[in-house]
Amino acid sequence: MFKLTKLHKAVTEALNAVPNVDDLAKSLGAVDVRPRVVSEHGGLHSATCIAYEPVQRLLAVGVDAGVKIIGGDGVEALLATRHHVEPARCVEFMPGVGRVMRVSVDNGIDVFDLHSQTCLASTRWTIDVTCACSM
């Protein structure tokens, strides 16, 4: 009986130590919280296209959520798009500048920076965009 009371006390103290969600919501503002996709677990179930960058040995895989970057030595990142959640039509590395471009089936074009892992530009065309080329 003693052990159960001790366990009950420890659980109660742990629950009381958790901050109140309402108090946290009042103290945090939009500047403090930046919701974004930081990781994706599992296989690439929605992969539609790929591009390879031979200098840095990176593979870009176009997925519904954006571009998945896979490389040697444990390099893995998801460059998420907020505007075009349609499947990717093509992905293309921009050589020498550390950027990757994604064209989606809804004619959206996103440009991502590999270093900061952010979307630099995003646009949607009214005409059909079938492919992209970078030089």
From TrEMBL:
GO biological process terms on file: exocytosis; Golgi to plasma membrane transport
Xref: InterPro entries: WD40_repeat_dom_sf
Molecular-function GO term, any one: GTPase activator activity
Entry GO terms, CC: cytoplasm; plasma membrane
Superkingdom of the organism of origin: Eukaryota
Matching PANTHER family: LETHAL 2 GIANT LARVAE PROTEIN (PTHR10241), TOMOSYN, ISOFORM C (PTHR10241:SF25)
This protein's name: Uncharacterized protein
